[in-house]
């Protein structure tokens, strides 16, 4: 009986450790993929929302480039690839990964200052995320989904209620950078705004202070 109890306790703690979020770790991203051959004009002309993706994985250098274009630090003063009202930077970028080279499936948050990813939860979450996005299959059948979230308090503490509007605008800038960067790297994406906030918050492990604004599936485009 004692052995059985010990085994049950062991099983319980092993499972909660695997599914748990307390043991986060940091992954240093490689240098972003080199410049593409596509001009910004060509990228703007050919950008389209893509909702059907191939099964190929995304390379870590491509992911690094995408995240850098979304929120990377591009100046010695800490300014980033996308503009931010008063340089307050209320947004975070998460990536929900199922098929990226050398990365375990799971949810990670991008750390612009270190060009790294910090793990949030390990496992496969895209099916759940797709359910939260009203069943949109492009959120499920894809190697990875980038999520843009906002912490309004960071920006409303400077601009009052108007700060919320600024956070929405900033998410648009980040999203467009991701669209154009995908186009330049022969990847596809779509800005997804239709989802249930609370469910996405639970999946990403967000606090009450953080709100998800956009989901952006990313993968190699295929004809639907
Ligand atoms: C705020 C916003 C929310 C959107 N939400 C969704 C969405 O939930 N699902 C989707 O498939 N497309 C979504 N889209 C993408 C639009 O449907 C798409 O941009 C539009 O059809 C024009 O196509 P294009 O992006 O290829 O030019 C959204 C776009 C914006 C700007």
Give a short overview.
The protein is α+β, with helices and mostly antiparallel strands. It has helices at 2-19, 40-46, 60-71, 126-132, 152-159, 162-184, 197-204, and strands spanning 26-28, 91-97, 106-111, 116-122, 144-151, 188-189, 210-219.
Characterise this structure.
This protein has a single domain (24-219), classed as NADH Oxidase (3-Layer(aba) Sandwich). The longest helix is centred in the C-terminal third of the chain and has 23 residues, at 162-184. The chain has a 7-stranded antiparallel beta sheet. 37% of the residues lie in helices and 19% in strands. It is built from 7 helices and 7 strands, in the order αβααβββαβααβαβ. The protein binds flavin mononucleotide. Flavin mononucleotide binds next to loops.
Provide keyphrases for this structure.
single chain, 224 residues, alpha+beta, NADH Oxidase, 7-stranded antiparallel β-sheet, 19% strand, globular, binds flavin mononucleotide
């Amino acid at each position: 009986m004692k052995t059985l109890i010990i085994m049950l306790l062991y099983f319980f703690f092993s499972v909660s450790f695997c599914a748990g979020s307390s043991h986060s770790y940091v992954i240093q991203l490689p240098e972003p993929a080199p410049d593409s051959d596509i001009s910004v004009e060509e990228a703007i002309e050919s950008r389209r929302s893509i909702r059907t993706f191939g099964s190929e994985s995304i390379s870590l250098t491509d992911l690094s480039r995408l995240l850098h274009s979304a929120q990377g630090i591009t100046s010695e003063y800490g300014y980033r690839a996308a503009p931010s009202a008063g340089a307050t930077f209320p947004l975070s970028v998460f990536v929900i990964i199922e098929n990226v080279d050398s990365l375990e499936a799971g949810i990670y948050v991008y750390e612009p200052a270190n060009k790294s990813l910090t793990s949030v939860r390990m496992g496969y979450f895209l099916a759940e995320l797709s359910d939260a996005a009203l069943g949109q299959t492009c959120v499920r059948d894809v190697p990875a989904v980038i999520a843009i979230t906002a912490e309004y308090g960071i920006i409303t503490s400077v601009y009052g209620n108007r700060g919320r509007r600024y956070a929405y605008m900033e998410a648009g800038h980040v999203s467009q950078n991701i669209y154009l960067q995908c186009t330049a790297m022969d990847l596809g994406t779509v800005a997804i705004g239709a989802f249930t906030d609370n469910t996405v918050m639970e999946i990403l492990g967000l606090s009450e202070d953080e709100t998800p604004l956009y989901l952006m599936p990313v993968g190699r485009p295929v004809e639907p």
